[in-house]
Amino acid sequence: MGFTLGIRREDKNKWERRVPIIPSHVRELKEKHGIETIIQPSPIRIFKDEEFESAGAILDEDLSSSSIVFAVKEIPIKFLQTGKKYVFFSHTIKGQSYNMPMLRKMMELGCTLIDYEKITDKNGCRLVFFGKFAGLAGMIDTLWAYGQRMKWIGINTPFSEIKQTIHYNDLNQTREHLKKIGEKIKRDGLPESLTPFIVGFAGYGNVSSGAQEILDILPVKEIRPTQLEAIHENFSSKVVYKVIFKEEDIVEPVSSEEEFNLQEYYDQPHLYRSIFQNYIRRLSILMNCIYWDKQYPRLVTKEFLEENLTGHLKLQVIGDISVDINGAIEFTEKSTTPDNPIFVYNPIRDDVIEGYKGNGIVVMAVDNLPCELPKESSQAFSDSLLPFIPSIIKADYSVSFELLELPPEIKNAMILHQGKLTPNYQYINRFL
Questions:
Q1: Would strands 361-364 and 342-346 be described as parallel, antiparallel, or unpaired?
Q2: CB atoms < 10 A from the CB of 227, how many?
């Protein structure tokens, strides 16, 4: 064979039905670029084996004859092959301890690794991503969780009619259902005890825009963080209020003489402290859509929750789409799965119980939300990846990294070349 790509089946769990390259793009790669595709069979993939075969792909367990293997999630160590080139979400760029053994093995085997997460434009904006679909599914699941929680408390809301993402046929069906719920809110309003009903979004990137797209199906009015106090004096029960928090809303300089500077905050977060507690009490739902690392302040701490839960804390549900364990939401103690997406954190006992019942706050923390919308998310992902595939496949990887000819977006996303960390990723050595 000439140029051949391999597509590995996803088998991380029963919910992972996505694919990085869809059948119509397999056909296009063959007809326009002469690139063959070998794909492993899968009984659960959202696109059937027959659809790939009809598009010209070869169905085979053995991907060894392919030039490069594409996948969505990490590839288990036992499947890695000597000198092979791989493209997938490696979850290694923060030095994640659970994936360091995989990265070490890839280095031992002389593998090349390109990570979708680092395929960005010159401004650092991601070009190949599932993030929007994490937001879409995460918002649906969080509204479902709020409806169930309120029902358990004894308050009936239109949100109790919302289903989990996995129980809708597709995104269109979800949208149609939410439109009807929105009409009900516009006509009858929400229970007085819950109003003003305010959904806060921490972050404004792809994930946040996906979550907002779902909320915006309802009768939404956007307000600024500075309006949160005033809106409690004059509000409508027939509206869902939306507020978006940017970095300058979440933190302030430690020195009162300094002004907020975004680049300085990114580079020297120790010069800033959180002021997010000023807003938490006003929110009904918080959607966490931010990138977080341990040098940054948290959004909600265990201490804050313990101090405020005994009073009337309006906040009932947090949709933690980012799912950093004990991260921005300190009490995100674990990730959850689509069939069991939520838990209640009790700050007094510092423990969690499954589901939406019990004293505390409900957390939605599904860590692979896009797999709840497998068809739509695979389509969009493949659309964004397709322009890069021919150059990834046809590059000569036998040359040194300096001489390797690839689009800059792809070359900057290469974590390993011939088993060695590339210049941008030398820092990972300290985690190995």
A1: antiparallel
A2: 13
Average pLDDT taken over every residue of the chain: 95
Cα angle value 420/426/430 (rounded, 5°): 105
- The ranges assigned to domains in the chain are 3-119+375-431, 131-372
- The pTM is what? 0.88
Compute the distance between CA of residue 347 and CA of residue 363 in angstroms, rounded to an integer. 13
Write down the residue that tokens 């659960």 correspond to. 44
| 44-88 pLDDT, tens digit each | 999 999 999 999 999 999 999 999 999 999 999 999 999 999 999
Query: Which of helix, strand or coil describes residue 383?
Result: helix
**Cα(first)–Cα(last) distance of the chain, in Å?**
37
CATH 3.40.50.1110 assigned to domain 131-372? The reply is: no
DSSP string, 240-271: EEEEEE-HHHHEEESSTTS---HHHHHH-GGG
3-state DSSP assignment of residue 31: helix
Whether the CB-CB separation of 26 and 57 falls below 8 Å is answered with yes
Same fold, 3-119+375-431 and 131-372: yes
Measuring CA to CA, which residue among 211, 195, 288, 209 is closest to residue 250?
Answer: 288
Give, in words, the CATH class of 3-119+375-431.
alpha beta
Q: What is the pLDDT of residues 2-59, one digit of tens each?
A: 899 999 999 988 999 999 999 999 999 999 999 999 999 999 999 999 999 999 999 9
**Type of residue at 253:** P
